[in-house]
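User: Okay, second chain of the day. Same drill as before: sequence in, structure tokens out.
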Amino acid sequence: MITIQKYIRPSSLEEAWQLNQNRRNRIGGGMLWNKLSRGSVNTLIDLCDLGLDTVTETETEFSVGAMVTLRQLELHEGLNTYTNNMIRDAVQDIVGVQFRNMATVGGSIWGRFGFSDVLTAFLAMDASVELYKGGIVPLEDFAKMPYDRDILVRLIVKKIPGRFVYDTMRIQRTDFPVLTCALSDIRGEIRCVIGARPSRAAVVRDENGILADGIREESAKAFADYAASTLHTGSNVRASAEYRTHLIRVLTERNLIRLGGLNDGN
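Assistant: Same drill. Structure tokens below.
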């Protein structure tokens, strides 16, 4: 558990950024994972007064503020309509409603946790993050970046026509995932995202043209084998590396079949 010496609600992003340059200070987010860490925080920085708690939808994109909660994502009609309910499917088993009412998008994305359903889902879309000093960075690039003292302001999702599916394996509902899998077909490009490997979520593309002639049962199996052979997996208390590699094959093939509409009506 952490101890906090001071609590400040800055009135501007510049003030928040200045405070965050002190390595002994910390941005709070929803304070759900932070409070489980150890050590002493000199100043906890709360961004709740900066208007970052809304989802704005235009004809071309969604702008998701860093302080938007996972429950807001789960219930947002526009995001779920656009993603074929992938967003709802990705977050609905994260602990419980009370938890999702507090956990924030900014905390989930900034943390780049290996177990993050949120990161896995948004990587399947044409998404970017806006950093206060770093500007707009593609989410796929941001997910690979080391931690620094910048501030995540919002998540930007381009409304490019596509299809999306999400699946996960958990030992029991509301537990941490053993493996996460999101797939999308955006303008003919298949993007497969695997998380909880147990390292950070990563994107696999069809670089060998396995799905060039469309999604069929044979090509779905072949691409699932390719994804499993491409991504490194590891072992922890939830599963072995071998089991996770097996799950990559199973969930990827299953999601591809759903994405291609091969099981529609079943």
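Residues 19 and 25 are 7 Å apart (CA to CA).

User: Thanks, on to the next one.
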